[in-house]
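Please fill in the sequence for the structure shown.

STRUCTURE ENCODING:
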């Protein structure tokens, strides 16, 4: 397994701050579903054990739709969704790569995912690594 380190991220106003443990070489998922397309979200999927919310729990607002499984968490002050609990991996988090410092990574690969047909394609998503 690649060497892991903690990388800090957060929302636009700085009210929500988190850390995610990840290698320096990562693979992102670029989903074309309606919410990801509209928000420009790039998914970095991690298990819950590799995510720590450092500040801003009191600022988070939850939005759910359709199956009500995914918990889309937004900063109530600036509106940015830096991370959320995805329907595909309810025991983990999807971190928005765009809310991390890109210079913390040596290699970033992006893989398209057809989220418009989520039910047909969900099994193609990689399981979370511990």
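FILLED IN BY: designer on duty
SEQUENCE:
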């Amino acid at each position: 397994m690649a060497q892991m380190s903690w990388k800090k991220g957060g929302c636009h106003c700085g009210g929500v701050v988190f850390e995610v443990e990840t290698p320096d070489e990562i693979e992102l998922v670029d989903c074309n579903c309606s919410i990801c397309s509209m928000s420009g979200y790039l998914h970095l999927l991690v298990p819950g054990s590799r995510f720590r919310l450092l500040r801003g729990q009191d600022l988070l607002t939850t939005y759910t739709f359709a199956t009500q499984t995914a918990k889309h968490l937004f900063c109530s002050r600036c509106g940015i969704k830096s991370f959320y609990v995805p329907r595909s991996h309810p025991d983990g988090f999807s971190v928005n790569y765009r809310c991390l410092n890109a210079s913390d990574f040596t290699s970033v690969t992006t893989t398209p995912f057809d989220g418009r047909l989520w039910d047909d394609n969900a099994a193609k998503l990689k399981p979370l690594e511990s």
